[in-house]
Design brief:
The protein is mainly alpha-helical and 233 residues long. It has ten helices and three strands; from the N terminus they run αααααααααβββα. It has two domains: 147 residues; 66 residues, no CATH class. It is 52% helix and 3% strand. The longest helix has 24 residues. Zinc ion binds next to loops.
Length: 233
């Protein structure tokens, strides 16, 4: 399951970056909250791919689940981390882009904290251009693929892009990965799993890449029992 949690995290970061960045690029939203969401997720995706673990705040708790309970750094902290570490990265971010993003984050901050009642559209075109330029990094490169897509379509596209990189290339092995199924919780066709259930009928254990619902082994057994006694939900 950890595999799926990590997969969903990568999918969601790229998705939230892309859908917000596209809306800003096309002037479909005010330039503040969407900028904040896009930059936070875009930077986290980049840091996680270049220097895994550095996107998280320092460990405060010890123990088995400490890694999962660590918070993601704030956008300004992520900019700082990138400035310090990117000299050795495969794809550094241009200084001019990073500077514009930093300025944009600082300008958008009063809006995020609800302190600027009359200032909803506080950023300039150059901040949006810097955001769009972030997409050049290999950890993102999603704007072309997600242009015009709904949220459910976007997470599904990203899931297949991710699985292309992380799942076997062998056609037979790939055929053992079911198509995304309908999620019981959010109703989208975005429940992904690594294989079929133990009965070879429905999707096995997995996660909804859209809402995060986890499908456990017990869920697959419960579905099978319901199917057997004809109790369709
Ligand atoms: Zn769902």
């Amino acid at each position: 399951m950890d595999n799926f949690v990590a997969l969903r995290r990568r999918v969601m970061r790229r998705c939230v970056f892309a859908l917000n960045a596209l809306a800003l690029r096309d002037d479909r939203l005010p330039r503040d909250g969407a900028f904040d969401a896009a930059v936070a997720n875009g930077l986290a995706a980049i840091v996680a791919s270049e220097s895994s673990g550095d996107e998280l705040e320092n460990k405060r708790t010890q123990g088995k689940r400490a890694e999962n309970s660590r918070r993601v750094k704030s956008p300004l902290q992520l900019v700082e981390t990138i400035s310090q570490k990117q000299a050795n990265w495969t794809s550094p971010i241009r200084a001019v882009v990073l500077a514009s993003l930093k300025e944009g984050i600082e300008k958008a901050q009063p809006v995020r904290h609800g302190k600027a009642d009359e200032e909803w559209d506080v950023l300039d075109e150059k901040h949006v251009e810097a955001l769009v330029a972030l997409d050049e990094h290999p950890a993102l490169q999603v704007l072309d693929d997600l242009d015009g897509k709904s949220f459910a379509e976007a997470v599904t596209v990203l899931y297949w892009l991710e699985t292309d990189r992380h799942y076997p290339a062998d056609p037979w092995e790939r055929s053992q990965i079911p198509e995304p199924a309908c999620c019981d919780d959010c109703g989208r066709q975005t429940l992904v799993s690594e294989g079929f259930d133990a009965f070879g009928i429905g999707p096995g254990e997995g996660v909804c890449v859209a809402c995060g619902l986890e499908r456990t082994y017990e869920d697959t057994v419960a579905d099978r029992l319901r199917w057997k006694i004809g109790d369709s939900k």
